[in-house]
Design goal:
The chain is of the alpha+beta class and 467 residues long. 35% of the residues lie in helices and 17% in strands. Strands 9-10-19-12-15-16-17 form a seven-stranded antiparallel sheet, with no helix packed on it. Strand 1 and strand 2 form a beta hairpin. Helix 5 runs antiparallel to helix 6. It is elongated and about 110 Å long.
Length: 467
């Protein structure tokens, strides 16, 4: 019995043979040098102990000299056991195991078959080996595909975290740059905004790192299952290969559950955090650059149903159609008017007084938009606008106002030309309403539509605010 215990202690858990050139891992488990090397060679990146699953970032193995000396001594002293090997022979009848009972999932001898297995589905041991070896190989192939999925998820998770950190770094630098202009007066506000950015971005990063951690945990489980199957497939003896085969097969059916990829883009209310110092600009207008734009309207572009104020800052739906020259720049189908100012670079901000108008459309557009025919007012056609309209969805205009309990009375519009962003804010508290992201390649104009007075309560003008 002592010999059997010693044989077990000197057996490699991977190849199930007596140790050859034994080595130890940092967790103090022992394996043949070639076995652990072959096992780790199949795994990219971090590895783990096949026994305890402890993960190692470094592939450190140490020669187990004392264990090696014991193994060599054991080999010299080992004598052939006269009794039948209990692994390869039936313990009850001491007959060689020649059959495999699929009903009871175990190897049996001829005497076992004659004493109770005649009605069971039995296979010759070699046939059973081939059958279950095929199943194990298919399971191994399945698990390897799951491992590929987990590796892809791991890569995406790591890339997403890098992208997120890069965005945070970029925004942090922008915040620093702006607040340097405001010096000591703005120090407390600067620190407050940076802390808010860190809090919100850290929350997102925590979720992304949580997803990555789940992926790594599933990878570890899949890796263990793969190593177990590979180890079993290396076993030559039929009964040993088939031992607990159903348990092994069941374990091999685990699937990789992708935790999903969190968005690698910061939400608009975080991306536009630096923009919120417009509230501070109101207090420090003398040192802030750029200051909010003072726009004027271009009457040459106004639809002939619109009435423009004398100071060129207000527009409303007129009582009657005007007899105006049909110039190429004038809108014919829709009640739009452009500003006299246009932008082809830089960052710009302006404000529009909406009053209590029930209907309006405000935003920016390309210089080349079709001003004469019916057209869908969407980014694809050169319109980046929002509005308060009953038919927003049918017009492909984002319906962001109807969802608000308190409707904005003053609208802030922010254009970052190189950044490819048009954002809208409620001026009252600078809360973010909507952001378009796109690539701008031509001159952009602020655009305004006070909308028709169908219901009799839309008489107020849209008015450009001069700060």
């Amino acid at each position: 019995m002592a010999s059997a215990d010693l044989t077990y202690e000197l057996t490699c858990p991977i190849c199930l043979e007596t140790f050859t050139d034994p080595v130890s891992l940092e967790c103090e488990h022992h394996f043949c040098r070639s076995c652990i090397s072959q096992s780790w060679d199949k795994v990219p990146g971090d590895v783990s102990c096949p026994q305890c699953r402890q993960v190692f970032t470094q592939r450190n193995i140490r020669t187990a000299r004392t264990l090696g000396n014991i193994v060599e001594t054991f080999r010299l002293l080992k004598v052939k056991v006269t009794q039948p090997d209990e692994v390869f022979y039936c313990q009850e009848h001491e007959e060689k195991l020649k059959l495999f009972c699929e009903e009871e999932q175990k190897a049996i001898c001829v005497d076992c078959w004659s004493s109770g297995h005649q009605t069971h589905k039995d296979l010759h041991i070699k046939e059973a080996v081939q059958k279950y070896k095929n199943k194990l190989e298919k399971s191994l192939e399945f698990l390897q595909k799951q491992m590929d999925l987990s590796l892809q998820s791991k890569r995406e998770g790591e890339e997403g975290i890098l992208q997120m950190k890069a965005q945070v770094d970029s925004l942090r630098n922008e915040i620093n740059s702006e607040f340097e202009k405001m010096h000591k007066f703005l120090f407390e506000k600067e620190e407050l905004m940076k802390a808010e950015l860190e809090r919100k971005s850290n929350k997102i990063l925590e979720e992304m790192e949580k997803n990555l951690k789940k992926t790594l945990e599933e990878m570890s489980s899949l890796e263990g299952a793969i190593i177990g199957l590979e180890s079993r497939l290396e076993v030559q003896e039929a009964p040993a290969l088939l031992k607990d085969i159903q348990v092994l097969l069941k374990r091999s059916q685990m699937e990789f559950h992708n935790p999903g990829a969190a968005s690698t883009q910061l939400p608009a209310d975080i991306v536009d955090e630096p923009f919120k110092y417009i509230n501070v600009w109101r207090e420090m207008r003398a040192v802030i650059s750029p200051v909010p734009e003072s726009l004027t309207l271009d009457p040459e572009t106004a639809n002939n149903l619109l009435s423009i104020s004398q100071d060129l800052t207000g527009v409303k739906f007129g009582d009657e159609e005007q007899d105006l020259p049909d110039k190429p720049e004038r809108f014919a189908k829709y009640c739009y008017v452009l500003s006299s100012q246009s932008f082809s670079s830089g960052r710009h901000y302006w404000e529009v007084d909406l009053g209590k108008k029930p209907y309006w459309i405000v935003g920016v557009c390309r210089e080349s938009i079709n001003r004469k025919e019916n057209i869908t007012r969407s980014p694809d056609n050169g319109y980046w606008v929002i509005g308060r309209l009953p038919e927003c969805k049918s017009l492909n205009i984002p319906d962001v106002i109807s969802q608000l309990k308190v409707k904005p009375q003053k609208l802030g519009v922010y254009l970052d030309y190189e950044g490819g962003r048009v954002s809208f804010y409620d001026v009252e508290d600078m809360s973010h309403l909507h952001t378009f992201t796109d690539t701008f390649t031509e001159k952009l104009y602020p655009i305004f539509n006070p909308c028709k007075n169908y219901t009799g309560d839309n008489t107020e003008p849209l008015r450009l605010l001069t700060i």
